Amino acid sequence: MYPVEAIEPVYGAGVLLLIAAVAVALLLFLIMKVKLHAFVALVLVSLLTAVAAGIPIGDVPTALMSGFSGTLGSVALLVAFGVMIGRLLESTGGAQVLADTLITRFGEKRAPLALGVAALIFGFPIFFDAGLVVFLPIIFTVARRFGGSLLKYALPTAASFAAMHAVVPPHPGPVAAADLMGGDIGITLLMGVPIAVVGWFLGGYLVSQFLAARFHVDIPTVLFGRENNGTPAGEAAEAETGTDSTGGVTTRERTDVSTPAFATVLLLLLLPFLLIALNTVVGTLVTAGSVPEDATWAKTLQLIGQTPIALLITVLATLAVLAPGRFSIGRASDMIDEALGPICSIILITGAGGMFGGVLRASGIGQALTESLSGMGLSLILQAFLIATALRVAQGSATVSLTTTAGLISAQVSAEGLSNPQIACLVFAIAAGATVLSHVNDSGFWLVSRFFGMDVLTTLKTWTVLETTLGLAVFVLASVVWLVV
């Protein structure tokens, strides 16, 4: 893997910042004006940026592939398994059952709020991308039922997962930041939950409804949407025929119209979250010394609680529960094929976004910016926010921004002898800076863009704005608490 952190900047901060700005501008021009495919544009601009930033020519291929493979390694399995679960639930009517129950309980007007609150709960143990992909069929089903812009339902849900991922342990960013600054994880967790929830409501939910009223986005049909004839994907005619790869005639079995019970659907959706949460609990106990590190049962529970493994288990459980009496395993394979095809582009574009961010990290742009900001004589909490923001804008990764900023200010934190609540406030300020201004060098930007069927400009006007207001809300709340603890 390319040693990103070990590379010294070849140029000064001003030149590197100019290179980054030109790279982003060129990328936007190629995608929005020239209409070049986003994957091709991202790879091309990543290559040009690596050369322009002074990365040795012989190391450029490694730098490119490091960011690409690292992102694919964390995203591809999650997206693939999540889409499989979503297609099976959508095809059997499970997503519709869950959506109907939510609407019955909360009402049409509060449907976006209900989705967002559910995502806050589910987002406690699970990463942003995995949570979002599992929730996609529910978002689409609710949006299809009531009409209007998809963003009314999609943005509150995505903002919930983003808030929990950035602010609340046991997610890796806030855990690493608190640990690097000598803070208490438990206090960070207890303070982080209300900060994340209130920040989400002010900067996520309310802003999402404002944006949804101004930007209409139709429901994509390539993932869990309806086919052109209005039939739910996977709900085939009684004897639907087609041709296979060899040209032979094939016959699809009809999917039974019986729908699973609400409790069944809910348990299937809860399964990956419970497995991941179990992994988190066991890992915490091992770290605390309450459970032996070499205990076989602990290692086994941690294995099945790894996000890709948890989602694989959920796919198998979904097949075992939903297939009998509804469709054969062969038909399920066809349905999965139909689901996987459209996401190839999403996965490749997301990986290329990770490549671009990785090149920017390898170039030393983030290091040069943080060194310039750290000597400005600002208050520590504002300094933490600005350094994290600079890193976020420069290289895209929220987790890298969190951990790097915490490491940079850790000596100052130690020198000032801050209390655990004050350190927790610094963690939230760093998380806020690591959330704002999501743009084209952020793999999450491309996930949202492609999953919700938005072009780059619309994503900048909606998702980038929402992430920024969410981060600012968290920072304001952290600053207020900082003044009183």
Explain this structure to me?
The chain is mainly α and 485 residues long. Helix content is 72%, strand content 2%. The chain has helices spanning 13-32, 38-52, 60-91, 94-106, 111-122, 128-146, 151-167, 172-180, 185-212, 262-288, 296-304, 307-322, 329-362, 365-373, 380-395, 398-416, 420-433, 443-451, 456-484; strands at residues 239-243, 249-253. The protein has a two-stranded antiparallel ribbon. A hairpin with a 5-residue loop joins strand 1 and strand 2 (249-253). The two termini are 42 Å apart.
Quick synopsis:
The chain has 485 residues and is an all-alpha fold. The protein has 19 helices and 2 strands. Helices cover 72% and strands 2% of the residues.
Radius of gyration: 23 Å
The parts where pLDDT drops under 50 for at least 5 residues are 1-6, 225-256
Number of DSSP E strands? 2
Supply the helix-strand structural class.
mainly alpha
| Average pLDDT rating | 78
| Strand percent estimate | under 5%
Adjacency order of strands in the biggest sheet: 1-2
Report the end-to-end length measured between terminal Cα atoms: 42 Å
Helix content: over 70%
Name the helix and strand elements from N-terminus to C-terminus, one letter apiece.
HHHHHHHHHEEHHHHHHHHHH
Helical stretch count?
A: 19
Identify the overall geometry. Answer: globular
Oligomer: single chain
Largest beta sheet, briefly? 2 strands, antiparallel
